[in-house]
Amino acid sequence: MNSAGARAMAAQTRAAYERWAPRYPPWAHNPLMRAEQAAMLSLWPPVRGRRVLDLACGSGRYARLLAGQHAAHVVALDECAAMLAQVSGATPVRATMMALPFADGAFDVVVCGLAVGHAFDLPRWMSEVARVLKPGGALLYSDFHPAAAAAGLPRSFKDEDNRAVTVPHARHELAAQLQAAAVAKLRVEAVREVRAGLELAEEFPHSAEFYARWHGLPLVLVVRARR
């Protein structure tokens, strides 16, 4: 993607989240997010007494969990001011995740929930994360699975006027993610999937039809790596 396209994608994403913020509380508020969070917690690194970055934090649901687990210092970074306004228990920083305003080795742990698809340049994103991690530090991230995007499932929401809004989302195949991690000198330790009808099985309106159609389709990818 060229620089003009990257700027346009970033602006569209920021505008979508500004519209989403009033209906985006700081906890896992739908079945997919609850299944994603369960997968993240299954790979959760030790955070007590450590400096942690909640990257692309949104309204701060992971920042709240990190503070509750007695991290020494939690920084919550996002580009959307309306999302950051909901963050509690952390130091909010408004910035792009593509150029992190932190010193090298500033954090012991970086957590990023459902945001890697907003990185227009995956190797750059991965190298920035590696740069701000201390040697031995852990990265834990989730994202919408490329298989779900390939199947035509959009990332969308309803705004306050009940209008459907699709959020721009780049499809990064797992192989590309693993390659970007390797180039950034991050060692991938674990990969998990959240699949329709399996790890995600909670009932919701029309869930029977959804699970019948998409049974076994990976919807979320979770990766843990170490510097």
How many strand units?
9
- Report strand order across the widest sheet: 3-2-1-4-5-9-8
CATH topology: Rossmann fold
Q: Please give the CATH class.
A: Alpha Beta
Radius of gyration: 17 Å
First-last Cα distance = 27 Å
Instruction: Indicate the structural class.
Output: alpha/beta
Kindly summarize this structure in a few lines:
This protein has helices at residues 3-20, 31-42, 61-68, 81-84, 122-132, 146-150, 174-183, 207-214; strands at 51-55, 73-78, 91-94, 107-112, 133-144, 156-158, 164-166, 187-195, 218-226. It has 227 residues and is an alpha/beta fold.
3D architecture notes:
There is one protein chain. The protein is an alpha/beta fold. It has a single domain (about 5-225), classed as Vaccinia Virus protein VP39 (Rossmann fold). The protein contains eight helices and nine strands. The protein has helices at about 5-20, 30-40, 60-70, 80-85, 120-130, 145-150, 175-185, 205-215; strands at about 50-55, 75-80, 90-95, 105-110, 135-145, 155-160, 165, 185-195, 220-225. Helix 4 links the parallel strand 2 and strand 3 (about 90-95). Helix 5 (about 120-130) packs across helix 7. It is globular. The mean pLDDT is about 95.
Keywords for this structure?
227 residues; alpha/beta; Rossmann fold; two-stranded antiparallel ribbon
Secondary structure topology:
Blueprint: H1 3-20, H2 31-42, E1 51-55, H3 61-68, E2 73-78, H4 81-84, E3 91-94, E4 107-112, H5 122-132, E5 133-144, H6 146-150, E6 156-158, E7 164-166, H7 174-183, E8 187-195, H8 207-214, E9 218-226
